[in-house]
Design brief:
Elements (H helix, E strand, L loop, with lengths): L1 H16 L1 H21 L4 E10 L14 H11 L3 H10 L9 H12 L2 E5 L4 E8 L6 H23 L1 H38 L6 H38 L4 E2 L8 H17 L7 H19 L8 E2 L1 H40 L1 H38 L6 E6 L12 H26 L6 H8 L13 H39 L1
Antiparallel strand pairs: 1-3, 1-6, 2-3, 4-5
Helix pairs in contact: 1-13, 2-13, 2-15, 4-5, 4-6, 6-7, 7-12, 8-11, 8-12, 9-10, 10-11, 13-15
Length: 507
């Protein structure tokens, strides 16, 4: 510890012994440094804060589910790209005097260090530019900083509004091309399907469709059998009731019987035809069958059947029996037709498996092409609707929280700090120069250092005797040294005052 203290004391004594050299070096370094600081151009910073609403109503609708946050992040990352910075340079005063591509590239590289895009969350971020050109005045630098930020904001809007619209137009054009291709393919597939259906009408849709149709026909056949069984049971019950019901009842005029029922049925048939109903109408068919049955009954009836008044209950049951018989005949016809269709379909499915497979392929290909065409058509209409809406408003909502303004104070350099730093550097350079000269002359400032250097004992030291005249001279030189040092500090104070006044004047 004593050795360290001795070294520090020796160094301080060495510097103090050559203090005028140290002070001269300090003055030289400080003057050069202060001049350099004074010549540094002021850099002015302008910034803008912008809020982007990516959760607007349009982006939440079906067909507009593109992630707006990803789009805004992409634009933010590419906002300070060389391409956009070139636009900024050409659109501001930075582009004046740039004659070739090399100069433009250099300007872009320099501007990239002066522009910053900082994110403050998902929807809020800041654009700033710090401009300090030595060939421009402070006012021009301040205005230029504002213009650079404004130009970046304009590019940001173009990338999200005009750029988005251009992308939509390109996407719609691409979809139009795809739709034309799919339309041609779909028309060709539909033509093949029509030709196949004309040649094999029973195999439309392939074996899968055939199986489905066979299953449906079998289900229908089971329903017909159930209805037929119920109708036959009901007819048998009605036959028993007719057998136990007298045909006529005694009446005053003696008229009645099957012939009267036949006449009544003929009147009902005539009434139906008078309404314009054809013979194929179900009601007319049932009425015709009723007339035929009653005519057969009238032909078989004897004279005794015509005695008395026709029993209304018997006539109603006879008419109802005719209806039941007609229904049974219709169900039997339907049953035979269904059985015939099932047999034909089963035979076709078993006899022509290759044709059935071809039918499956044609049907599947046509359906896939139709689905793709419909999907592309829907996408194109959604994009067109989106483009029409964006003619009036962007997908994203922009709010300029802090617009760019012309800065009133320079953002850099920090001259007060630099001036004080130059002073520290000058004093340090002076002290270092004095200490270095002391090391070169190999003088010993203390007896202890002399003893350590030569490893010999020092018997004693002789003190310096100073006369009154020499002491007065030393005092005068000390005062001069203090005055020179104070003058150096005074220059620093004056420079700081000038800087403060100039800042207030600019503001």
């Amino acid at each position: 510890m004593d050795d360290i203290f001795d070294e520090v004391r020796t160094a301080l004594y060495t510097v103090w012994h050559r203090r005028w050299i140290a002070l001269g070096v300090a003055w030289g370094v400080c003057l050069l440094g202060w001049v350099a600081v004074a010549l540094m151009p002021n850099a002015y910073e302008s910034h803008a804060r912008i809020y982007v609403d990516v959760d607007d109503v349009l982006s939440q609708q079906q067909g507009f589910s593109a992630d707006g946050r990803e789009e805004i992040a992409r634009v933010r990352q590419t906002l300070a790209s060389d391409k956009n910075l070139s636009k900024v340079i050409k659109g501001t005063k930075l582009g004046e005097g740039l004659s070739d591509q090399g100069a433009l590239n250099t300007a872009v590289e320099e501007l990239s260090k002066q522009v910053a895009v900082r994110s403050e969350g998902d929807s809020l971020f800041e654009i700033s530019a710090t401009i300090g050109k030595s060939n421009l005045t402070d006012a021009e630098n301040a205005v230029l900083a504002r213009n650079v930020v404004q130009k970046l904001l304009d590019i940001f809007r173009e990338e999200n509004i005009a750029g988005s619209r251009a992308n939509l137009n390109s996407a719609v054009a691409k979809l139009d091309e795809l739709l034309e291709e799919r339309k041609a393919e779909l028309e060709e597939a539909e033509q093949r399907q029509l030709e196949f259906e004309a040649q094999y009408p029973d195999l439309v849709g392939g074996s899968n469709t055939l199986s489905t149709r066979i299953q449906q026909l079998r289900t229908e056949l089971r329903d017909i059998d159930a209805d037929l069984a119920g109708a036959e049971t009901s007819l048998a019950s009605l036959e028993n009731q007719i057998a136990n019901t007298p045909r006529t009842i005694a009446g005053p005029d003696g008229a009645g019987g099957p012939k009267a029922a036949l006449a009544q049925a003929q009147q009902q048939l005539a009434a139906l035809k008078s309404r314009g109903l054809t013979d194929q109408h179900p009601d007319v068919e049932a009425a015709i069958k009723r007339v035929v049955i009653l005519r057969q009954a009238a032909d078989k009836a004897g004279p005794e059947d015509e005695v008395g008044t026709t029993n209304p209950a018997y006539s109603s049951m006879v008419a109802l029996r005719a209806d039941r018989q007609a229904s049974i005949q219709a169900l039997q016809s339907r049953r035979a037709a269904a059985q015939s269709q099932i047999a034909n379909l089963v035979a076709s499915q078993a006899a022509e498996p290759e044709v059935a497979a071809e039918a499956i392929r044609i049907s599947r290909d046509t359906e896939v092409l139709r689905d793709n065409y419909d999907k592309l058509l829907q996408d194109r209409e959604e994009l067109r609707t989106r483009g029409d809406v964006e003619e009036e408003t962007s997908q994203f909502k922009f709010d300029l929280i802090d617009p760019p303004v012309v800065p009133q104070k320079p953002a850099a350099p920090n001259r007060p700090l630099l001036l004080f730093g130059v002073l520290i550097a000058g004093l340090g350079a002076g002290a270092g120069a004095a200490w270095g000269l002391g090391q070169l002359r190999s003088t010993f400032m203390t007896a202890q250092k002399l003893e350590r250097t030569f490893d010999l004992p020092v018997i004693g030291t002789v003190s310096q005797t100073v006369s009154d005249t020499a002491r007065a001279l030393q005092r005068r030189r000390l005062i001069q040294f203090g005055g020179a040092t104070a003058a150096l500090m005074g220059v620093l104070v004056i420079l700081l005052a000038i800087e403060i006044v100039s800042l207030q004047t600019v503001a």
